[in-house]
Fold:
Amino acid sequence: MNPGEGLELYEVFIRSRRGLDHKHVGSLRAEDDEMALQYARDVYTRRSEGVSIWVVRSDDITSSQESEDEAFFDPMDDKPYRHAAYYTVPDGVENI
Amino acid sequence: MASSNHNLSIAQYAIGLGDDALTLGHRLSEWCSHGPYLEEDIALINISLDYIGRARMFLDHAATVEGEGRDEDQLAYFRDDREFRNRLIFELPRGDFAETIARQCIVDPFYVLFFEALMQSKDPVLAGIAGKAIKESRYHWKHTHSWMLRLGDGTAESHQRILTALDEVWGYHFELFEMTDLDRELLDAGIAVDLAALKPKWDSMIDEVLTAATLTRPEDTWRQSGGRNGEHTEHLGHLLTELQFIQRAHPGLQW
Structure:
């Protein structure tokens, strides 16, 4: 058997401190969910990087496709009024 | 209580525990870059580092209470095999992956129980080391337990290989529960662990994992011990040759 053959690919998310969000830190291969969690602990939290770990099978993630980037993201580019910076604050207004 | 004889006993006790950790830590470190795949390689080396960390703490404590001016490095690198007090199971070659997991299957539950008990030691340093190590050992057991299920209940070949590996290491488990005179002396003083008392719980932990892994418990047909008296297998000398080489060639070298 080749190294890694028959293993599933997982994405690893780590919460570095309480109150913060889980952040994607990388991926790994493992036989099942339980081992993926153990490996995530060993591979990604060796230097006290985390207080909580999520592992998700990469196959279970639905992601946007690069080929659809135009349809997905371009329409937002010409709507500057969706950004706060678009609006000027009238003189004399202290809080908005 | 605070006599120097008493301190020497504690030092001897700590040296035994330190040598157990040092030899197993070294054996596990031999997997570095040889693990079946990257993630498992890192997992094994993490476990190895846990053991080497324990060895340092135990040997440092031994050197301190002994009070003869030696330090942890001198204990680790400048004693010969006959002076090592590790029990035999820890010095056995790493073997293949099944053999490594089989040894851990015997050792991990033992350490979970041992450190739970050592946390109650009247020696505050030993109790402190136990408090740190128990967390590591609980994790080691989780790791090994997963692998036992996977190998035992995996393919026909993995089943056979883990069974054979268990058979080969089985006769060394008795020594973990043997009480030496030193153990009894320090048990009376509230410092050492009653090893024999751990056996029934260990038996049930082993039976649980073997049943879950569809494996048959090996029969108690042979037993080997002697490590605590300095009587070792032929493997320890080779292990020490590699472990001690740098310090023997360049005494006191630091990096």
About this structure: Chain B has a mean pLDDT of 96. The CA atoms of residues 29 and 48 of chain B lie 6 Å apart. The domain at 5-216+225-249 of chain B is CATH 1.20.1260.10 (Ferritin). Chain B has one domain: 5-216+225-249.
